[in-house]
UniProtKB/TrEMBL annotation:
InterPro entries: ICDH/IPMDH, IsoCit/isopropylmalate_DH_CS, IsoPropMal-DH-like_dom, TTC_DH. Its cofactor is Mg(2+); Mn(2+). SMART domains: Iso_dh. SUPFAM superfamilies: Isocitrate/Isopropylmalate dehydrogenase-like. GO terms for molecular function: D-malate dehydrogenase (decarboxylating) (NAD+) activity; magnesium ion binding; NAD binding. It is an enzyme of class 1 (oxidoreductase). Keywords: Manganese, Metal-binding, NAD, Oxidoreductase. Its EC number is 1.1.1.83. It catalyses: (R)-malate + NAD(+) = pyruvate + CO2 + NADH. This is D-malate dehydrogenase (decarboxylating). Belongs to the isocitrate and isopropylmalate dehydrogenases family. The keyword NAD applies. It comes from Alicyclobacillus acidoterrestris (strain ATCC 49025 / DSM 3922 / CIP 106132 / NCIMB 13137 / GD3B).
Amino acid sequence: MEQFEIAVIPGDGIGKEVVPAAIRVLEAVADIHGGLGFRWTSFPWSCDYYLKHGVMMPEDGIETLKGFHQIFLGAVGMPRLVPDHVSLWGLLIKIRRELHQSINVRPAKLLRGLTSPLRDPGEFDLVVVRENSEGEYSEIGGRMHRGADEMAMQTAVFTRKATERAMHYAFELASRRRKHVTSATKSNGISHSMPFWDDVFQDVAQAHPEIATSKHHIDALAAFFVMKPQMFDVIVASNLFGDILTDLGGAIMGSIGIAPAANLNVERSYPSMFEPVHGSAPDIAGQGIANPLGQIWTGKMMLDFLGFEEMGTLVLKAMEATLASGVKTPDLGGKATTTEVTDEVIAYLRRRA
Ligand SMILES: NC(=O)c1ccc[n+]([C@@H]2O[C@H](COP(=O)([O-])OP(=O)(O)OC[C@H]3O[C@@H](n4cnc5c(N)ncnc54)[C@H](O)[C@@H]3O)[C@@H](O)[C@H]2O)c1
């Protein structure tokens, strides 16, 4: 019996609704498998916590998380009460950085039973590998003066170590898929960091001669996501470009409520963190209609990372069967609740067991 200790951070808004739903699915998976178990420990770190304590997580929060195998997170943000840069940097980015979760992986696939907003989506199945530790999301910069003379500077940071790490991960992932990596660049407009990005991509590509490559400027690449997403297998992108592309990936699937993500510590020295792409959706929180599939797919990625790919594949099949049966939340044009979608996923898993 393999037992995993999982730290759970539901966070804010719909995070508190979709996380328990996905845990129910993972518990059903463990039950069906028989040799896999989870122990869930929940932490209340969120904007609510910030309003009570003045911090998003306690001082020893990172040390506490180090004691777990993995982290399962919902969504963080209550923009009406806590500024987003405070909630994001005080929890999410802090965890990603301090636990060296240097790669963010976000798949986008047209699942059976989904209707893409694209007129001709084809059968796209792609993964964005986003560099998650530096790039445009850097703490280097500042603001000076006030009023008409006010200025702000933010410095993007690209190191060879982190860039190579993301690219090697992308090539290794592609070697297990359709063997193609696309680089998201902007070396026509950003004249130092992006030519550097291109050089590193070329070096890493030479170490993986079996993988075909292409590169596109991020603006054209975003347009291709809409015009012909079928052309992509694995895409490697900087922190900001990857962030934007993956919301688009969620949108072309039919709803951002489906899109999953994993923040990976590839060295496995600290826990990785699994969280959906979507945020806390304050506009629908508390209504019981949040789509749980993004969080459930995130759970599938955790199963894969823990070495239970067969069970992960079964979860994705259960999601597709649920969508194909028409049990969908309102973001996908259906009438089902979070609980009804979750029940249907679990019922499929039990039927297939
Ligand atoms: N990883 C995270 O924790 C994360 C990610 C993105 C945004 N945020 C935060 O979340 C808050 C709200 O951000 P936002 O409104 O820009 O993005 P959002 O993803 O929360 O919502 C965007 C739109 O998508 C819908 N939506 C999102 N997830 C859904 C789901 N599972 N089911 C059905 N509909 C869903 C929402 O109702 C909303 O209309 C902000 O504070 C933001 O900073 C957090």
